[in-house]
Design goal:
Largest sheet: 2 strands, antiparallel
Mean pLDDT: 78
Number of helices: 4
Radius of gyration: 19 Å
Helix content: 40-55%
Distance between the termini: 59 Å
Shape: elongated
Strand order of the largest sheet: 1-2
Number of domains: 1
Length: about 100
């Protein structure tokens, strides 16, 4: 089967456009989420991943007995992928007042 150069280029553009859209900041969910901030249950006020205000709709992840809040569910997933060392460093900054 012969595929023209033009067809290959169009398919390439479509694939890259789709991939770029899917790989865009997962925090597009942030824009769609309600503007209310998370309740007192989260120990932080700002998302550790995107440094945006924590939203109750994004939920919390418990790490070493601390409820960490996020601006969107995508950031919660990214935080879950962090190494324990990176999570520990974030908690240290949070408790030292260097993060909110």
């Amino acid at each position: 089967m012969h595929i023209s150069v033009w067809t290959k280029r169009v398919v390439t553009v479509v694939v890259f456009t789709a991939a770029s859209t899917l790989n865009a900041c997962e925090c597009q969910q942030c824009a769609d989420a309600p503007e209310s901030t998370a309740q007192v249950s989260a120990v932080n006020q700002m998302c550790p991943v995107m440094n945006e205000p924590v939203k109750a709709s994004a939920g919390v992840v418990e790490y070493k007995g601390e409820a960490i809040g996020f601006c969107c569910p995508g950031c919660a997933k990214k935080f879950a992928g962090w190494s324990d060392e990176k999570k520990d460093a974030y908690l240290e900054k949070l408790h030292a007042g260097q993060a909110t």
